[in-house]
Amino acid sequence: MSKTETEMPAAENPELTPEQITELQTRAAKADENWERLLRTTADFDNFKKRAAREKIEAGQYATFSLLGKVLPVLDNFEMALAAAQNAKGEKLTSLQSGVAMIQQQLKSALTDSGLEEIDAAGKLFDPNFHEAVSEQESADVAEGHVLQQLRKGYKFKDRLLRPATVIVAKKPATPA
Questions:
Q1: Closest C-alpha to 51, from 43, 62, 39, 63
Q2: pLDDT tens for residues 124-162?
Q3: Is there a single domain that holds both residue 86 and residue 57?
Q4: How many CB atoms lie within 10 A of CB 22?
Q5: Which residue, among 172, 166, 159, 73, has the nearest Cα to 128 in the 3D structure?
Q6: How many structural domains does the chain have?
Q7: DSSP 8-state assignment for residue 81
Q8: What are phi and psi of 147, to 5 degrees?
Q9: Sheet containing 147-152: which strands, arranged edge to edge?
Q10: E strand or H helix at 72, and its extent?
Q11: Is 84 contained in some domain?
Q12: What count of other Cβ atoms lies within 10 Å of the Cβ of residue 123?
């Protein structure tokens, strides 16, 4: 039951040849390399799982994002219809106006409950992150760089901009020559 010299551990056989020592060192280095690769692969897989879970949650949160973009023109049309009905006269127009106002309020409420938020730009400092300037207009009443007039409302959905507010920005009046 004696072991051969190649099967005996180094502690029991102090007379290893330089080739055997080199081979053992090569095997140890290869084992260390494989262990490091396993650790990196495990860490990469854990990061992948976390990223996939985060993207799944985000996809669920923003699933209605494109739907809201399609509904916004309807909301705009309701507002234009209300404006047109206010200029008309008569009892029928009053009932039409109140009916359209109720529909608009119901739609706004549903959209707000879904996470839609209006961007109020009137009188505020122009912010290119939330406002889209279509022109500049001279004004002595409104400070330069502030929104003079809001042409179309902007909207955010949760923390993302859905549509910027379309605005006219004030600039200093030209001095007479």
A1: 43
A2: 999 999 999 999 999 888 899 999 999 999 999 888 999
A3: no
A4: 11
A5: 166
A6: 3
A7: H
A8: -75, 120
A9: 131-138, 165-171, 147-152
A10: helix 65-87
A11: yes
A12: 13
